[in-house]
Amino acid sequence: MGALHHQLVHELGYDPDDGVPSAEDVARDLPVGAVVRAREGAVLVAVARLGSGRLVIVEDECPHDGGRISDGFVEGERLVCARHNWELEVVGRRCERVRSCKLR
Ligand code: FES
Fold first, then answer.
1. Fewer CB within 10 A of the end CB, N or C, for the chain?
2. What is the pTM of this model?
3. Is the CB of 90 under 6 A from ligand 1?
4. Are strands 78-80 and 55-59 parallel, antiparallel or unpaired?
5. Mind listing the pLDDT tens digit for each residue in 43-57?
6. Which of 75, 81, 96 gets mutated to test ligand 1 (max ligand atoms within 8 A of its CB)?
7. pLDDT digits (tens, 9 = 90+) for 13-46
């Protein structure tokens, strides 16, 4: 890592070359039913296109136990966390539990 790169990482609080795409780039062509990890500056987010076509961007941290929401999947108008299958509803920029531990 060069000195300039190190300085940028220190000043920005994240590495812009870490391979995580920007939420804006991901959102452009995201198909219905997809959820992808992205970033908005230093904040890691999950970008999802719900069943209705509505685009949502939320912090990529499950309210249950911190799992990555972007590792889960879309089910209609809800996001489902892959770790313990909590069903989540998007409220503002965060997710709230709708139902927990749904057996599949
Ligand atoms: S961490 Fe998401 S359901 Fe448990």
1. C
2. 0.86
3. no
4. unpaired
5. 999 999 999 999 999
6. 81
7. 888 788 999 999 999 999 999 999 999 988 999 9
